[in-house]
Design goal:
The protein has 2 domains: 20-78 and 211-262, no CATH class; 90-207 and 277-294, no CATH class. It is 75% helix and 0% strand. It has helices spanning 8-12, 20-48, 57-105, 110-131, 138-144, 146-153, 158-175, 181-206, 211-232, 241-262, 277-294. Helix 3 packs antiparallel against helix 4, helix 3 packs antiparallel against helix 8 and helix 9 runs antiparallel to helix 10. The chain starts with 7 loop residues before the first helix and ends in an 8-residue tail after the last helix.
Length: 302
């Protein structure tokens, strides 16, 4: 994956990966509401001679409070996204550690070594499937074979089953091949950390931000934008500019709200900027299976 990022103007007008397509309808609705408020105010003044409008000062205070609330919510969502990335970094490291320790301290039996490396590589794939509520994919069939994948598909929690298979192989290494018990404890501890990292991801997935917080912020945004034309109606010489200005204000407010909502679940492919779990899992598979392919044959090791 390249580290080069697009230029300023390319990202400034990008639609792919942007919140813009998701918020344009809501922005347009507030523009229509602003136009209706202007028309209503004009009709009331013509018919009854009543001045329709409010002072700008309350908007300055309300705007500052609304901006603070949106920043806090966006930061809360980003914290969840970043924590999920840290947890998946742990899954990467511990998967490598399981494979490295198993190959370094485990028995020389080729079948045992091949199996434990494949199960270690499979853990990240089943975590991805579990977090996205998906069934096993073709990459698991390539790693484990159709029979084992069918067995995984029938289990209640696939990552736990993979962890169990790793534990079974470690026990077999001790009982059948005489693997050192210290090595057993070391690899088993690495396997346990894999489950810990997955548990952290499941906590993020199952515990979204409090819905009452989202409701209040969106209600605040709606009231702020609906009332905005009343503050602008006698302060602009060109009345038709009021709906446009309302939409220009609505766009960043609704976009920030949408981004904060999207960041709550960093695993779903339906959300913007979701974590690239497929790429991470493939990287783990390439790393650990590469160790197996590149290791020196047992007969030539000293």
């Amino acid at each position: 994956m390249s580290d080069r990022r697009p230029g300023f103007w390319r990202e400034a007008f990008a639609l792919r990966g942007s919140a813009t397509p998701h918020v344009l309808a809501d922005v347009a609705i507030f523009g229509v509401i602003a136009a209706a408020v202007c028309a209503l105010a004009w009709w009331i003044e013509r018919q009854f001679g009543l001045y329709v409008g409010i002072e700008v000062a309350p908007y300055e205070i309300a705007g500052a409070a609304l901006g603070l609330l949106l920043v806090l919510r966006t930061n809360a969502g980003y914290d969840r996204w970043w924590e999920a990335r840290i947890l998946w970094g742990g899954i990467v490291n511990q998967s490598r550690n399981v494979a490295i320790s198993a190959l370094a301290y485990g028995p020389d039996d080729p079948q045992w070594r091949d199996e434990i490396v494949r199960w270690a590589a499979a853990f990240s794939h089943v975590c991805r499937c579990s977090l996205r509520d998906q069934g096993p994919g073709p990459e698991l069939t390539e790693l484990l074979g159709p029979d084992r994948v069918a067995m995984l598909a029938e289990t209640v929690h696939m990552p736990s089953r993979v962890a169990f298979e790793i534990s079974r192989l470690l026990d077999e290494g001790c009982e059948r091949f005489g693997m050192d018990r210290f090595a057993f404890r070391q690899i088993d501890a690495e396997k346990a950390r894999l489950i810990d990292h997955l548990g952290g991801c499941e906590r993020i997935l199952r515990t979204p931000l409090a819905r009452v917080y989202s409701i209040k912020i969106r209600r605040f945004i709606a009231l702020f934008l609906v009332a905005m034309p009343f503050a602008l109606i006698h302060r602009l010489e060109v009345t038709w500019m009021i709906p446009l200005i309302t939409m220009l204000v609505a766009y960043p407010l609704i976009s920030l709200d949408h981004i904060g909502d999207e960041l709550q679940n960093p695993f779903s492919t339906e959300n913007l900027s979701h974590l690239p779990l497929n790429d991470i899992a493939e990287t783990i598979t390439h790393n650990v299976t590469g160790l197996l392919r590149e290791e020196t044959p047992a007969s030539s090791r000293t």
